[in-house]
Amino acid sequence: MLEKLLLAVDESEHSRKAVPATVELARAGGGSVHVLHVRELFYPVPPTVQGDTAEEAQALVDGIVEELKGAGVTAEGAVRPSTGGSPAGAILEHARELGASLIVVGSHGHSALGGLLIGSVANKLTQLSACPVLVVRDKEVLEERHHDVLRAQTRFQS
């Protein structure tokens, strides 16, 4: 069932926290992992390219692939350029080409309203993906959001 897992990564700590979940899923399903980093390029005025370099992007992917292989998981990696706007489009295109069973991505844990305003990659993936998407969040963020829900319930119940 989980033959091909697509792990979309960036240089954030939130993204790194999705790696252990991907290892567990790959082991349980006997599948392989395809690590993808989308290079977001920005062209400000005056014209200079900003964003991670090709070497930095490849080093990020290679490091995660080695970590996965060290955990006994079959893995390979790729770096793609952004197709404009959010990296979600490039991730979805790669998932289609790969025939991914599941997309795994880390999340910054923005609130639902924050996700709408910011247009997070995880939010776009869950809305537009043809295959399931697992969003891995920080435990602290989930506990904080749980407390926010409890505070809101208490306020409305009184």
List its traits.
158 residues, alpha/beta, Rossmann fold, five-stranded parallel sheet, 7 helices, 19% strand, disordered C terminus
- What multimeric state do the chains show? single chain
- Strand arrangement within the widest β-sheet reads 3-2-1-4-5
Main sheet overview: 5 strands, parallel
The CATH architecture category equals 3-Layer(aba) Sandwich
Helix and strand content put the structural class at alpha/beta
Overall pLDDT: 82
Full CATH superfamily name: HUPs
Point out poorly predicted stretches: 113-119, 146-158
- Give the total of domains: 1
Q: Which geometry do the CA atoms define?
A: globular
Stated plainly, the CATH topology is called: Rossmann fold
Query: Strand-and-helix sequence, N→C?
Result: EHHEHEHEHHEH
Query: What is the rounded Rg?
Result: 17 Å
Instruction: Specify the helix fraction band.
Output: 40-55%
- What fraction strand? 15-25%
Q: Gap between N and C termini, in Å?
A: 47 Å
Summarize the SSE layout with pairings:
Elements: E1 4-9, H1 13-16, H2 18-29, E2 32-39, H3 54-70, E3 75-81, H4 88-98, E4 102-106, H5 112-118, H6 121-128, E5 133-136, H7 139-157
Parallel strand pairs: 1-2, 1-4, 2-3, 4-5
Helix pairs in contact: 4-6
